Amino acid sequence: MAKNIEPEKTDKTERETRMREAIKKAAFVLMAEKGLDKVSMREIAEKVNVTKPVLYYYFKNKEDLCNSIIVEHAESFSALLSQAGKEALGPEDILRKSLLSHLDFFARDPIHSKFVLQMIAYTLDAKKLNPPKDHESTHEKLALALQREEKQGRLPKGSAKDVLALVSGLSSSIMLNAYFEQHVLKLVGKDNGPRVRCRYEKEDAERLAKIILLGITEYYKNTK
Predict the structure, then answer these.
(1) How far apart are CA 103 and CA 109, in angstroms?
(2) Hey, where are the domains in the chain?
């Protein structure tokens, strides 16, 4: 009898993991389309084809579910930035990988840009999202990586905060441009004559990483 206990526990763990992922995936799609505050736990339960008590078994409330989604997607950025910091060939490599990770995330699935904008709208409406206290944001990860580069003399002294501001601005621009390309232009149609491309490409991210580093280096050389 004892031999069957471990496989049963493993099967249950796997089922629960699959169910958690199914719930998060359904909630992610609904919240991206309708808004974080306009989706009910009942709607999410119906989307997954489970009862509300099942939902509350996995997540204590909608905020808990929403935070779980945000943390999961942020971890893909954090893992890449952590690796970039460990294997960095220099600050340009960190900047390039940071921008490319954002580019990949928003290009991979059009729903990503929708969800981020819905999340911003939710917080602008004086509502709070409270990720776990031990969760380190991608912004913090990048800041630490740049500070290490500065301490090792590969970035001008005092410049890490300026580099972080520039990369953060570009990351926001990548997200907004992805939303415009993937959703706004679809609504207005593409038969209105030629238009300027606003979508970021891999080459753009790599070029901008070089521009940021060269600009920062030149600025600090001439003014500090």
Answers:
(1) 11
(2) 1-59, 76-223
Nearest to 77 by CA among 143, 166, 27, 141: 141
Residues 6+ apart with CB under 8 A from 2: none
* Tokens 């300027």 sit on residue: 196
Please tell me the predicted confidence (pLDDT) of residue 1.
Answer: 47
Mean pLDDT across 178-202: 72
Structural fold of domain 1-59: Arc Repressor Mutant, subunit A (1.10.10)
Structure tokens at 105: 């995330």
The gap from C-alpha 22 to its chain's centroid, in whole angstroms, comes to: 19
Rounded CA-CA distance 53/60 in Å is 10
What local confidence, expressed as pLDDT, does residue 145 receive?
86
The amino acid at residue 160 is A
Q: What residues contact 149, with CB distance under 8 A and at least 6 apart?
A: 88, 90, 91, 94, 155, 160
What is this structure's pTM? 0.79
Q: How far is CA 220 from the centre of its chain?
A: 31
What is the tens place of the pLDDT at every residue in 84-128? 666 667 899 889 988 888 888 888 889 989 998 998 888 877 666
Q: How far apart are the first and last CA of the chain?
A: 74
**Quick one: tokens of 218?**
């030149």
Number of H helices, E strands in the chain: 10, 0
Per-residue pLDDT at 109: 87
Provide the b/e sequence for 106-134 (b: ≥16 CB within 10 Å): bbeeebbbbbbbbbeebeeeeeeeeeeee
